[in-house]
Design a protein that fits this description.
This protein is 39% helix and 11% strand. With 485 residues, it is of the alpha+beta class. The protein has a five-stranded antiparallel beta sheet with strand order 1-4-10-8-9, with no helix packed on it. A three-stranded antiparallel beta sheet has the order 5-7-6. A two-stranded antiparallel ribbon has the order 2-3. Strand 8 and strand 9 form a beta hairpin.
């Protein structure tokens, strides 16, 4: 950090936990809101723009995360010739806690039913395609000989796991990058102690640049075409014919500042935040979860709703009701397609799911009238336009049969987790040591999602009692139909 002009306060203590080798940052003395605790020059960050292979990478790998993965692999392949050699020696080879690096067997066993199960399997299937399409041509076209072993599929997976869990959005010019020192601060949802601020000599104002949230600042000119570090020493460059004539060195006055946003007592850990995201997103990108995360969600796929409807009604009935719902949705939100419905951490379904269940369960006569007038009649209520139903008044749709539909969908979604019950998962989590990170965090994810389904059932139970469709089947009738099936 000294060689790269990275400065940090003597009030910081960088520690390694012996139990799991995790690094954390502790306050050696009281630190106060507004204190500047670190400055990091942007050109000391490992980015595509600062890499010696910048132009070639951008030519073959235009996508952000893939391009940064190639830059990381390239700089690692340079060994001591890389300006980031010291930093790279401190990084782990990979982040084994990121599900992308888990075996297919582990994914199927630990993530079944969760929001990540399908996503991670799709990710793994796409990795080989990306590697074949972009990284292999990059190695073959390099103007200097590269060792293919430094860029093979395993190295790409390892690089992706580090990029996923350690990269920051720096600004519009540098894009994503690896930021020394900054990646040592652990995450805490909605309770961070430090924020990043992006400073440029070309602007008199500061622009907050919270991690993983794009925050553009002034445009900058392109970086050093010779692959020089800030000390002026030349490293191997792959620019060749891909370099541009207008590349000039970035000013070292362009820096990232780390500023305290709350007081921290001596001896306590200093936290950053990686953003407001649920456990599925945290585990997917960073390889960990948080108990009682307020941003957890569960999705109910449109296919599940189709499956539920088809178990009660004819295929023709299901198709026509789905078609009507889609027409109504597209009339309100042109071009927006819905493939799933989100259930929030407190168990509330989004309004579009209630609308779809409402339409599916309309009696035939009411449905035909609704298809013509787009007005639905509910006993003890005036006719309502479905387009007028929003998140604020969606409980108008909680008829007895709709509540029964929510119960049934919660049950179907619950079965996605396999034969283990919620109680089994809770007991397994209590007995699981935190050091068994894959099992522990997958259990936290499973239990947090299943608790949301419990809250969804409670939400349905607390719906407007006694409200039902005119001439419509009620929730008891609906559940009896399901039980008979």
């Amino acid at each position: 950090m000294k060689r790269q002009s990275i400065e940090y306060s003597e009030a910081l203590d960088l520690l390694i936990q012996q139990q799991d080798q995790q690094v954390w940052v502790k306050a050696l003395c009281d630190i106060h809101e507004g204190d500047l605790i670190a400055t990091i020059p942007k050109n000391s960050c490992l980015t595509v723009k600062s890499s010696g292979a910048c132009r070639l990478i951008e030519y073959f790998c235009p996508e952000g995360y893939m391009a940064l993965s190639v830059a990381l692999m390239y700089e690692k392949s340079l060994g001591q010739q890389s300006p980031w050699f010291g930093y790279l020696q401190l990084l782990p080879d990979r982040n084994p806690d990121v599900p992308l690096l888990w075996s297919v067997e582990e994914i199927d066993e630990l993530l079944i039913g969760t929001e990540l199960h399908k996503t991670v399997k799709e990710d793994k299937a796409l990795v080989y395609e990306d590697w074949k399409a972009c990284i292999v041509p990059f190695v073959e076209s390099a103007p200097i000989k590269l060792n293919p072993d430094d860029f093979d599929l395993e190295q790409y997976l390892a690089a992706k796991s580090l990029i996923s869990s350690r990269s920051f959005q720096i600004d519009d010019y540098y894009g994503f990058g690896m930021v020394p020192l900054a990646d040592l601060f652990n995450h805490k949802t909605d309770a961070e102690d430090v924020h990043f601020t992006s400073i440029s000599s070309q602007s008199e104002s500061n622009t907050d640049s919270s991690e993983n949230v794009e925050n553009p600042i002034d445009d900058y000119q392109n970086g050093d075409p010779l692959g020089q570090n800030q000390n002026g020493s030349t490293v191997n460059s792959l620019e060749g014919d891909f370099s541009s004539d207008d590349d000039t060195c970035s000013s070292t006055t362009e820096i990232l500042e780390m500023i305290m946003v709350r007081d921290v007592k001596a001896g306590t850990e200093i936290f950053n935040t990686y953003g407001s995201m649920g456990n599925a997103a945290l585990l997917h990108r960073y390889g960990f979860t948080e108990p009682d995360n307020p941003y957890n969600i569960v999705n109910i796929d449109l296919d599940l709703v189709h499956q539920w409807s088809s178990s009660i009604f004819s295929s023709r009935h299901t198709r026509s009701r789905l078609s009507l719902w889609k027409r109504l949705h597209h009339s309100e939100f042109p071009g927006q397609q819905i493939d799933y419905f989100e259930i929030s951490s407190d168990g509330e379904p989004e309004v579009e799911l209630l609308k779809l269940i409402f339409i599916i369960l309309l009696p035939e006569k009411a449905y035909n009238e609704f298809d013509k007038s787009k007005v639905a009649s509910i006993s003890n209520k005036k006719g309502i336009m479905l387009g007028e139903i929003t998140e604020t008044n969606k409980k108008l749709l909680l008829t007895e049969s709709v509540r029964g539909g929510l119960f049934s969908l919660a049950d179907i979604r619950e079965r996605c987790y396999g034969l283990r019950s919620m109680e089994d998962d809770v007991e397994a989590l209590k007995a699981c040591p935190v050091t068994n990170r894959k099992l522990y965090h997958s259990l936290v994810l499973r239990t947090s999602e299943r608790r949301i389904l419990e809250k969804l059932r409670a939400y349905a139970t607390a719906g407007s009692a006694g409200v039902r469709f005119v001439n419509g089947c009620n929730g008891s009738t609906l559940r009896k139909k399901l039980q008979r099936r």
